[in-house]
Amino acid sequence: MKAELLMVQGENPERKIIIQPNGKVVLGRHHLCEVILNDANVSRLHTLVVFSPKGSSIVDLGSATGTYLNDRRVQKSALIFGDEIRLGKNVFKFVRRDEAESDSKEAKANTTAKQQQLKHNTLKEVFIDDSENLANEKHPCRGCSKEITREDIILGKAVYFKKRYYCEDCLPLEKSIPPIVAQYKLLMPLGGGSVSNVFKARHVFVDTVVAIKLMRTNLTGQKNIVERFFREAKFGIRFDHENIVRIYDAGKAQKYYYLVLEYFDGKTLYEVAGQKPFSISQTIQIAKQLCNAVGYAHSWGVVHRDIKPSNVLINHTGELKLTDLGAAKEWENPESSDLTQRGQFIGTLRYQPPEQIANASKVDQRADIYAIGSCLYYCLTGRPPFEGKTLAELLDKVLGGKFTPIKELCPGIPVALNKLIMQCLKKDARKRPQTMEEVNVYLKDL
Known about the structure:
alpha+beta, Transferase(Phosphotransferase), domain 1, globular
């Protein structure tokens, strides 16, 4: 038995999304969604639909305009055949797939499903199947021609940038960057992403070595991105902690928005543990330093919202620095502005808690505590607690708290460290440690 989402209202009436048993689909505007809806009233990640012969369900993913089931707004609900689902201007009917349709017609539709997804699902038949799904699409890296899958993008191993795919090693630097920006001579690139490039640099007059982050010039006209870029400076300049990368200055020179940061000669936890997981003793030292950094930020009433292995640096002596405050917000100040709107997601899905997926603007310190648990899990195993070949599969695991207990992957883990990680990763924020002071209770036993 299969299920079908039949569009009865929207840009393509009678469009069919066929879901195999135990299949999952995410509907939204984001290019990684299994079903892409080109509707401004639909959030980037809007709704998750799970079909199971034992009982299907629908989950709103913190959308701005809501998910409506039979004209009633729902957060999470059981789903039965005959139900109507409304997302923005789109209405779908959840029905049982007519098994009497010819196998040849179904096979023909299935062979073209992947191409249809790349064309923003404008055709009528899309098949979602646990064993043969859209995660198997492959695209060549624009830089090195390496094959990139949807799973690579979901796992952060590749980037979809300017309508092209790049592996993590090939995302291009901004072209024509001058050798000197704002009195800093650029020495070598350190990395970057779709928003900015980071360089090692030296002040031309006083020889101070720093890191300088330059926003990509194609984004400088987007007010929200510019404000978020400088938000990192707003918090970072006032922070003075040994385990947080310091920010010295920010501004605009020539056509470049820039941040001047402390230069720290290290690698990310993502790079190091991805090659070889840390030992238990190393992970304990990482935990203590990371918790010191996060506790300091929380003492200022600031929640980071994007703690993940690639935002934590460590050097050869074991010294650790937390970086990238671009997603940070003050959670205790009612007058503090937040750039996040409901329906937007902030952070990285594999490391952020369910409540942040639902509404990133409303999270508090417990979101960071959850992310600490995710980072420590990665340090010991070299893999995140939640993985999925499709966006729907990943979201289903995060929202359901479905992950392999750390003790099964690391049998020798101390009791206190095991409890710390497992408690931090509770899907219900009320069941986690509520403050960093409570987290420190576990650390005292390590």
